[in-house]
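Pasting two entries for a bug report.
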Amino acid sequence: MQWDSLKLFLAIAGSGSLAAAARTLDVNHSTVFRRLNAFEEELGGRVFERVATGYQLTPLGEEVLARARDIQHAMDDLERAVLGKDIQPKGVVKITAPNNIAYRFLPRYLGDFHKRYPEIRLEIFVSNLEFNMSNRQADIAVRATDAPPEHLIGRRIVDLRWSVYASEKLSKKKRPVSMQDLKDHALIGASGGMKNLKAYRAMDAKYADSVRIRCDDMVSMAHFAEAGAGLAVLPADEARKGIVRLFDFEPVVVSKLWLLTHPDLRHTERIRLVMEELAAAFQKDKDLLSP
């Protein structure tokens, strides 16, 4: 039995569809279909029932899944152990970062990285979701969090202070000068999961009646503020042309930005080089420093 066959099986079991498994494995749909049929023929039984909602495990599939996961964990451990001893500055480094960091900061920090290390290739995954760093979905995660996952290691690289921002077009005479003035202005609030962030909880507790627009994304909030739709409360990394910082949000809110990786990969040369490059760039970026 080939390990690739088990990886295919795990991808289908995890997603419930051939199309999603094909995207995960970076192959086409027909290849997944053909290899699944070959795998089931090799086993002598069906591991999936083809139903209207996708692919569901059969009793045989459930048994295979439990054993395949054990094998997957062993293979992941082996791969990380081997990579952890890699002292050559070459190979692929996968970085996951939230959209604003990926759009505005990583290109500036890593745009010419390949000139110094031509054999290191970078893959950027734009997401704020938790990636599985045990099986190398990502090697480095840039995350704003007060509590990094205990199974990862890293460094706290910068503290991002939250402030109130307004459109540059709003005349200075009409700009609020303190938190007490916010009740007299239209505000841009949070929706969805963003409402659970400390700053937006505090905003809703005191100024909910002044919120005119809600977004579940800070980049969108910044653009609405630029358009003059209201005042936005944002961390320092969201500051951009078109909006101006007015004053600190109160109560004071600070987001801690971390660079994280798996402990087994900390001595891998290419990952170490990228982490050091990012840490140095973040820490000296004037756009992120508190006023």
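Entry 2 (this is the one that rendered wrong in the viewer):
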Amino acid sequence: MRIKLVVFDIAGTTVRDENKVAAAFQSALEEQGFQVPLEVANRFMGYEKKHAIRDIINEVQPGTDITETLVDTIHQAFLRRMIAYYRTSSEIEPLPHVEETLQALHQAGKQVAINTGFSRDIAEAIVERLQWREKGLIDFLIASDEVPNGRPHPDMIRQLMAAAGIDDPLLVAKVGDTEVDINEGRNAGCRYAIGITTGAYTREALQEHAPTHIIDDIREVLDIVKD
């Protein structure tokens, strides 16, 4: 069965992260008095960010009255940091072999999508900075604030399938660097839920969540999804 759509995560999968996302979470939470070890913040990478804020607070300070105002304040602080980073930092670049892999997928007749636990404004800042639309490297982009339920729910993948004119999830592969990426792919019924070791999770940590494949180089996707 021919894969027609490959869905990639952003930070840690296609774009170099250097742990900036977790650090931005850590700083935004600290502003409101929550001390969060970086390793705790790392465990929530890939999730819709307001959901992640709630889960982190519940872990580090159980019993906190987590109001919408509190979550929004932390989220806005996180957004400011990340948008400024992705718009201005000289560190922003694709991970090795990403652009050539996206190009090769198109040449093989596949559609390529990017999805993310970021909100749309952050996602747009990244894609605009890297000029992936201008380069013809992606067909679709969707963010967690554009669907009723973020990862690990399958909403983003299902919406991408609709945009791509695909009814069968067995024609779709999902690629990401976290547990929530793998479970998103599995929950959507994708033929492949591929974990990659270039981001937040080690091979051993990814293996615990039963991906169909674990790869160390994004070029390996080409062999997995080839006709």
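Dev reply: Rendering is fixed now. As a check, the viewer should reflect this: The beta strands are 5-8, 111-116, 140-143, 172-176, 192-196, 213-215.
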